Hints:
By secondary structure, the chain is of the alpha+beta class. It folds into 2 domains: 1-25, no CATH class; 31-166, 3-Layer(aba) Sandwich (VC0467-like), CATH 3.40.1740. The protein contains 4 helices and 9 strands. Strands 1, 2, 3, 4, 5, 6, 7, 8 and 9 form a 9-stranded mixed beta sheet that branches. A hairpin with a 2-residue loop joins β2 (52-59) and β3.
Amino acid sequence: MKLFRLLCRLLAFLVLAGAVSGQQPGTHRQPTIGQILVATEKSRDADLAHSVILLIYSDPNGLMGLILNRPQDKAGYFGGPIPLGTRTLFRSRTKPVDAQRILDEVYMVSKEVPNSKDATARVYAGYAGWTMRQLMDEIDLGLWKVVPGDVAMIFDPHPETLWQRAVR
């Protein structure tokens, strides 16, 4: 009988936790390449608070993203707290050579920058990363809002104010 009551309390807790985050536990889909994560007011991570992040890589073990709203200078952006490599996002009607498609008109390369007249480019140093479970848990806790990828958001002319507009 004690075990039954304990299980009922655990079930009630799990249902309540889902209601607090706005979703039933496990009902949301795994985030995918091309989606955007918007840090909520609940986020207290100093490296990621007030971030808008484009997911650029996903597999069953983990995800990578680039912070879109932290310009460093005219030539580059702070892509995230993991200081490995640089990646370039392109907005182009045609696929640059050796580029990975992220979503419509958005491509990424991690080698040299392609030369294209019709492309807009942004270079990111570093990246943000999670295990799949870690990010799913953070979404369940309400630390991230997941929104569809949007070319205009990715290449926003005022990235320094993007979070304030996206968090609404």
